[in-house]
Amino acid sequence: MRSRRKSRGNISTTILKCISICLLGGYVMLVFLNTSGSTKPFDEVKKAIQKEINTENLKDVSTQGLKRYYGLNGAQYDGVMMYVSASSMSAEEILLIKVKDDTQIQEVEEAISKRLESRKNDFDGYAPKQVEMLKKAQKSVRGTYIFLAVSPEADRYKTIFRKSI
Distance between terminal CA atoms of the chain? Predict the structure, then answer.
């Protein structure tokens, strides 16, 4: 009787180990898929995003805007797309950057964080809807691509970005 219990215990342990390994493997695959980059050229990704976003109230400032608003030199990156609101009363903006190498990602992320905080301070006290939109901004890093959407449609724009790469 004792050996039967031992045998059942070994089988249960083996099954649990197999399940754990499968779950871990699935998790690793999901992480890999979510963090992997794209081999698509910048212009192809940019056009896919431009086709889907509403730029009616936005102006294209790309490389010059990146320097002005983020303090980053656009020439140091493989590609820059940037739209800001045509109105000074709106915080809406869309940013897409393709970095040349992974070491630039942190620099861009820090600049984005500083920009968002600065914009929140700009609108604090008189434009609560703009502050809320800034709080709900969507940022995504996929491989060498960095995307930011400050918009009422930020979630949708982030999805468009992810599908484009």
Answer: 60
Q: What letter does residue 70 receive in the DSSP assignment?
A: I
Order of strands across the sheet with 145-150?
58-60, 79-85, 93-98, 145-150, 138-142
Residues 6+ apart with CB under 8 A from 93: 58, 69, 82, 83, 84, 85, 148, 149, 150, 151
Could you read off the pLDDT of 69-128 as tens digits, one per residue?
999 999 999 999 999 999 999 999 999 999 999 999 999 999 999 999 999 999 999 999
Tell me the two tokens of residue 147: 């995307």
Cα gap 13→24, rounded to integer Å: 16
Token code pair at residue 6 = 């031992």
Q: Where are the domains of the chain?
A: 1-35, 42-164
